[in-house]
Design brief:
single chain, about 325 residues, alpha/beta, TIM Barrel, 8-stranded parallel beta sheet, 11 helices, 14 strands, about 20% strand, globular, binds zinc ion
Length: about 325
């Protein structure tokens, strides 16, 4: 098993914890007009990953890894991510694809799913051309998703392209299903394209924390990502812990993922936020207090994301 990172493929034995859904550099402000959403300082990212390593030191000989799900329409910067990975000692996995309406560039409305898939496949297998002539390869498809509760035609086309890319490369698809139970529609489209559900993480499921919704997805074989850990204004962490404990009790441990989706300046420790470590440090302490053992914590913070993201095969 290995992860495809911006510095090359990294063997699983060299990786400690994995944060499956984060941003190091992204900018939602073109749509939201909120200065807090201009989140694009590589030096800040390096400093904040330093805090991650201080809060929860990786085991000797290993490094933590972070899946960076910012796409081009949110300001993805492959060369800066490579620099951040080098300076911080945290492995960074880069995403490919297009985020959601209304962030899409014009081409997403014009190109077919086949053309969109072709470009994603190239970014995973060959990579994005850097200014020094080297290539930086993507290691995950997404985050790709839905604006609101229903898929638009363009969002559906991007999801079809994502499924075809996964089928061709083995890369995982990670979705944005925020505040609505839209993971069902997303999975319908992905399945219509013949995707292996073992390659799918439905994201932000802890923003619509309904047991029937969550188990309907789990029964279809996908991973569920509780990735807004620490965002108490959406749901208190106590409810995330309660739901996770219930799902683990029901036998779903091997399908659960934890992350914190850092994407606002106010999320940073230097600005008084919880920083990148919360999902694998403080939040896991809450899980321990609720009776989840170390094997369970290891499964959610290492084994599950490794299994999900390590399926890429070469052309
Ligand atoms: Zn998202």
């Amino acid at each position: 098993m290995s992860l495809r990172t911006v510095l090359g493929d990294v063997n699983a034995d060299l990786i400690d914890r994995i944060l499956p859904h984060e941003h190091l550099l992204c900018d939602f402000s073109s749509v939201t007009a909120d200065r807090n959403h201009i989140f694009n300082n590589p030096d800040f990212a390096i400093r904040e990953l330093g805090y991650l390593n201080e809060d929860i030191a990786p085991a000797a000989g290993t490094q933590h890894a972070l899946v960076e799900v910012t796409l081009r329409d949110l300001g993805r910067d492959p060369e800066a991510m490579r620099r951040i990975a080098q300076a911080s000692g945290v492995h960074v996995v880069m995403g490919t694809g297009w985020y959601l309406e209304p962030y899409y560039p014009k081409r997403v409305y014009n190109d077919s799913a086949a053309v969109l898939a072709e470009e994603m496949i190239e970014e995973i297998q060959l990579g994005v051309l850097a200014s020094d002539g080297s290539r930086i390869r993507a290691g995950v498809i997404g985050e790709i998703g839905t604006h609101g509760g229903t898929l638009s035609p363009a969002e559906e086309r991007v999801l079809r392209a994502a499924a075809r890319t996964s089928n061709a490369t083995g890369a995982a698809v990670t979705t944005h299903a925020f505040l609505y139970p839209t993971g069902v529609d997303q999975l319908d489209i992905l399945e219509e394209e013949g995707i292996d559900p073992n390659r799918v993480a439905i994201g932000h499921v802890d923003t619509f924390m309904d047991h029937a919704y969550l188990t309907s997805l789990l029964r279809r074989g996908v991973y569920l990502q509780f990735d807004t850990c620490g965002r108490e204004h959406l749901f208190p962490d106590s409810l995330r812990v309660e739901m996770l404990a219930r799902l683990i009790d029901e036998g779903w441990l091997e399908r659960l993922l934890l992350s914190s989706d850092r994407c606002h300046m106010s999320d940073l420790k230097m600005r008084g936020g919880l920083g990148y470590s919360w999902a694998i440090a403080g939040f896991c302490d809450l899980l321990r207090a609720a009776g989840i053992d170390e094997a369970g914590i290891d499964m959610m913070t290492r084994e599950n994301p490794l299994r999900l993201f390590s399926g890429i095969h070469d052309a």
